[in-house]
Amino acid sequence: MKVAIVHNHEHKSSEVTRHLLLLLKKNNIEIDDHRPDLVISVGGDGTLLSAFHRFSHRLDDVSFLGVHTGHLGFYTDWRDYELEELVQSLLVHQEKSISYPLLDVKISFHGNKPEKHFLALNESTIKRANRTMVADVLIKDELFEKFRGDGLSVSTPTGSTAYNKSIGGAVLHPSINAFQLAEIASLNNRVFRTLGSPIVIAHTEWLEIKLQESNDYLITVDQLDIYQDDIKSIYYRIADERIHFASYRHMHFWHRVKDAFISED
Ligand code: NAP
């Protein structure tokens, strides 16, 4: 097995990484930063997001594992004092893995510009700088609503506890193979009307956000900011690819939600 480690710049994460590297070497596990079978992230959920994007071109060949050095995360199952146990679990090669849905993001442009394609682990948002965003929202090619407001967020089930939750989206159990559309400060009055609540869209369906022509849109894909001129539409659907986690340690999802947002006990 070949392992790559991605860590954040916190002192604790560097220390944990140093210790982990020693343990891996002691157990003859090869380190390979280019073509690993397993990517271990050391830090928080944000670190796991970075690790995902670094290796998102190899999702069929790579699994992820998260060690958290701060508070319990949604993608980080292992604690920093459990490194020995973690390395042992890699040596016995348990089949305990789990996979989660990803969001396929396709941006199309006016004129002959080629489409751009991204994968999101948490979410993708569309916003407009300082002006009201005006867009048609189509589900399965049929007009659903005309949106006016600050923007829209489209999230995966595992991303539902991130930005989506902050804007009033629902928390989705990660075993649900679907994606969620949530509004960011929609304008609702007698002239403009949207549904006004988040919606969960099936994996068999797709969403198109058709933008009014303008050159000041910002598209985000997890931590990535994309400023592009001439955007015509953004298409969202559940991706064919999934993210795989190795040596997965089951924790009751709602327990994790409670621990993160309500209380520790
Ligand atoms: P950041 O601004 O440094 O951190 C954002 C926070 O979101 C961190 O506390 C991070 O946890 C947490 N987070 C990330 N993924 C999560 C998930 N799936 N469930 C619950 N919490 C999660 O940003 P970053 O580290 O570059 O990560 C980018 C992500 O941050 C975006 O995808 C977006 O979802 C989220 N974000 C949220 C808000 C908001 O809620 N208002 C604003 C900006 C960005 P850790 O501390 O464990 O890393």
From TrEMBL:
InterPro entries, sorted: ATP-NAD_kinase_N, ATP-NAD_kinase_PpnK-typ_C, NAD/diacylglycerol_kinase_sf, NADK
Keyword Kinase in record: yes
SUPFAM superfamilies per the UniProt record, alphabetical: NAD kinase/diacylglycerol kinase-like
Cofactor(s) needed by this chain: a divalent metal cation
Keyword check for Kinase: yes
UniProt-listed GO biological process terms: NAD+ metabolic process; NADP+ biosynthetic process
Binding annotation for NAD(+): 45-46, 122-123, 148, 150, 161-166, 185
Main location: cytoplasm
UniProt EC number: 2.7.1.23
Keywords: ATP-binding, Cytoplasm, Kinase, NAD, NADP, Nucleotide-binding, Transferase
Reaction catalyzed: NAD(+) + ATP = ADP + NADP(+) + H(+)
Active site: 45
Domain of life: Bacteria
A GO term, aspect molecular function: NAD binding
Coiled coil (residue ranges): none
Subcellular location: Cytoplasm
First-level EC class: transferase
Family per record: Belongs to the NAD kinase family.
Purpose of the protein: Involved in the regulation of the intracellular balance of NAD and NADP, and is a key enzyme in the biosynthesis of NADP. Catalyzes specifically the phosphorylation on 2'-hydroxyl of the adenosine moiety of NAD to yield NADP.
Name of the featured protein: NAD kinase
